[in-house]
Structure formats: structure tokens, C-alpha cells
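DOMAIN: structural biology
WANTED: fold as C-alpha cells
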Amino acid sequence: MAESLEKFHMEVSRAIRRGNVYDEDIPGFVQEAVQDLEREHDWKAMYKEPVQATLTIGVGTLDLIRMKQLRWIKIISDAGHEFPLRKIQREQVSQRAAGRPGGFWTSVYDPTATSTIKFDNIPDKAYKYEHGFFQFSEMDDDLFWLRLAPRLVMAEAIMLMAPILRDDKLVPRWSAVRNPIMTRLLETEILVEFDGADGQMVPFTREILEDDLADADFLL
């Protein structure tokens, strides 16, 4: 397991055996590999645990950095009652009035930008809220893929590089590395399907434990 993203890039460089010819290109391919993996599935490590916060009076939007998908959001009254917000379409809102939000829609998700949640009503007071969402990873040394499945990311990145490396054997060779790791991860590290009916998140099929990460054979 690489200690940093820079060292991981060096490991990819050694794996392709081209000296330092493609060292400047490798970070971009690694980022593309991570984004492809995260667009395709809702990995548990991407889920951000709910934290209670307060909506701003008179502001009918909420910005989230690198948000992939908002799974649920709810208003919490002073008495502790919870009011889940419904996911709606922009076309369903003809006029936004002042009051407690009851529904929301979102802007296009982007792994490198800020996404905006918009409410059907503009908060008329500082409502408390909680939300659960999936967030695209930031490409830094805290990247969870470096400890969860670095060989998977390496395989994905090298297969993306195959056209510029001009080696027909790279894809089948690294597919053989990728496929068993992906199979294992799909069994343990993603969420069950989300029905989306009431704006609530479907529970995890299994929680990740520190010992699981330490002992998992797909880390190698």
C-alpha cells in the first residue's frame, strides 16, 4: 500500500515499465480511473455521515462540494420532529414561497465542482437539518482507494493508458488483476439498491470495520 498519492503514481510508473516517459501523464489517468469507479457505484467509503446543521434564512439553496448523489435530507423541528424532504423535479415548482422546505432538486453532479441543492420553499427561519450524501473523492493522500484497493486503481489506470502505451497485452493482463478485486468489492463495499421512493437511504448490507480493512486479501 502506497503511503501517499505521489508514491502510488511512482508504483504505476514502475508497473508500466517505460522509465519516466509517462510520469507526467500518470496522475491524470489515475484520477480518471478513480472517477470512473466512483461514477459507476456508490461505495461505502464515499458516504458522508450525517451532521446536523442550519439552513440560512432567505437562502433557498445548499452547496455541497464534489457531491455525487444526495440520498436524503430532512428538516428537524425544535421539538425534535423529523420532516423528510421529497425529491422533486424543477418543473413541479411554479413559485417559491417563504416557509419550511418540503422538497428539493439538485444540479448536475460533478466530481470536480460544487453541486447545488435547491428547495421548493425559501427558509423563513433557521431550520435545523441533516442530510446523507455520497461525495466524489479528492485526489490527495487521504484517498481511500490507496488503502482499500490500490491494485484495482492501478489496473484501471493502466488499462486507460493502453492506447498510448501501444501494448495489446496490457488490457487482458490487467483485466485479470482487476476482475477478482472488483468482484470482491462489489460483494462487500457498496450499498444495496436504492428505491428512491421516499428520499431515504437504504441501509448498508454490511458495515466496514477497521479489522476488515486490515485483513482483507484484496488489499494486496
